Amino acid sequence: MTLLGKTVYHVSRLGLAAVFIYAGVVKVNDIVAFAGQIANYQILPYAWNYLIASILPYLELLCGILLLLNMRVRPAVLVLSCLNIIFMVALVSAIARGFDIDCGCFKPDSANPTSPLSALWRDVGLLLLMVATWVLRYVKQPKEIE
Amino acid sequence: MNNFPLSPTLRRIFLEALILCILSAAVGLSLNFKLIFNAFSGKAVSSPVPVNAIVDETAVENGVAVNVFPIPVELDELDELLAVGALLIDSRNSDDYQINHLAGAISFPLGLLEDQLADFRKQVSVDQTLVIYCSGYGCPDSFDLGVCLINEGYTDVLVYEGGFPEWQDAGYPLEGGGE
After folding, report:
1. Regarding beta strands B130-133 and B87-90, do their DSSP bridges make them parallel or antiparallel, or are they unpaired?
2. Among A45, A56, B120, B148, which residue's CB has the most CB atoms within a 10 Å radius?
3. How large is the average pLDDT for residues B56-73?
4. What is the C-alpha separation between B32 and B53, in angstroms, rounded?
5. Partners of B64 in the beta sheet?
6. Band of the pLDDT at A103, cuts 50, 70, 90?
7. For A3-101, where are the alpha helices, taking DSSP H only?
8. Which of B6, B13, B52, B143 has the most A C-beta neighbours within 10 Å, making it the best mutation to test the interface with A?
9. Beta strands B101-102 and B174-175: pairing type?
10. CATH T-level fold of B50-175
11. Is the Cβ of A139 closer than 8 Å to some Cβ of chain B?
12. Pair B137, B47: CB distance under 8 Å
C-alpha cells in the first residue's frame, strides 16, 4: 500500500476511534439521559429505549477501542457501519416527522444540541471513513486480514 | 458460496462482529440490570443529573429547606393523584398535543409560557396539584415548566417523567385527533 493509502487508513481509523470512544464514554456516564434521547425519536416502546441505551454505548466504546488498538478492525467497522446506518434511518425518520430534537449522538445534556439534519450529514461523513477503513484494511493485509 | 474467495474471511468477520455485539450486550445488561428491570416493570428510573433533586440545599428559609424542584411521580401513582383532582399538564408543543395527549390533560407548552401564564394563573389556583409531562425521560420541558410554575407560587408541582410514551405503551387512554 502506498504512503498515501497508509496515511488515509490510519487517519480514518483513529478518527473513528476518537469519535466512538468519546460517544461511548459520555453516554455511559448518563444512560438515563441517553435513553431519553432515544425516546425522543418515538420509534421504540418506552422500556426498550432503556435496553438499547444500556447496550449501545458499550458497543461504541468497545469498537472504538479496537480501532484505536488497530485490532479486529473490520469486525469493529462492520458493527459501527451497521449502527451508523440505523442512526441515519432514525434521523431521516425524525426529519420526515418534523421532530426538532437533539440527535443524541454525543453528550446527552449538551448545551448545543445537534439537529437531526446536521447529524445526518455527520453520519454520512463517518460512513465514508468507515468505508475507507474497511477497504484500506483489506489492501493493507490482503492475505491475513484481521 | 464456498467458491467465493472472501467468504471464509467474511464469515470470520461477521462472527467476530457478532461476538463484539454479544460482549457489549453482556457488559451493558449486567451493569444496568436494575435500570432495565425498573424500566420494564414501569418503575421510575432516576438520572444522575439532578432531575430528581427535590430539595435545593441552597434554598433554605428559616433553617428549613424548601422544595424548589418538582417532585417526580411514577405511572402507578398517577391514578391516585388524578382521582383526587390533580391537573394533568402537557408541556409538549401544541401540534403534538393536538395529535394525541393523555386523557384529561390540558396543553401548556413550555415555549408559550410567557403568553399563556397569565391565563393559566387566572384559571388554576396556586394550591392545585399539577402533574406535568412531556415526551418521556430525557425530555426537559416538563421539569423546566415545573420549576417555572413553582417560581410562580404553585406549591404542589409534580413531574411525570415517563410522560407520553410510557402512558401510551401502558395502554392508558389518550385523547386527540390522531395523525
Report:
1. parallel
2. A56
3. 54
4. 21
5. B61
6. confident
7. 3-28, 31-39, 46-69, 73-96
8. B13
9. antiparallel
10. Oxidized Rhodanese; domain 1 (3.40.250)
11. no
12. yes
Amino acid (one-letter) located at B143: F
User: Cβ separation of A33 and B138 shorter than 8 Å?
Assistant: yes
**Per the CB < 8 Å rule, is A30 touching B48?**
yes
Cα–Cα dist A53/A37, whole Å: 9
Q: Please, are residues B166 and B77 in contact by the beta-carbon 8 Å criterion?
A: no
Judged by CB atoms closer than 8 Å, whether chains meet at A75 and B47 is answered as: no
Grid coordinates 393536538 are at which residue?
B98
Task: Write the pLDDT tens digit of every residue in A113-129.
Answer: 778 888 899 999 999 99
Tens-place pLDDT, residues A21-80? 999 999 998 888 788 788 778 788 777 888 999 999 999 999 999 999 999 999 999 999
Q: Which residues of B touch A51 (CB under 8 A)?
A: 36, 39-40
At B70, the pLDDT band (50, 70, 90 cuts) reads confident
Partners of residue B21 in chain A, C-beta under 8 Å: 59, 79
Reduced to 3 states (helix: H, G, I; strand: E, B; else coil), residue B88 is strand
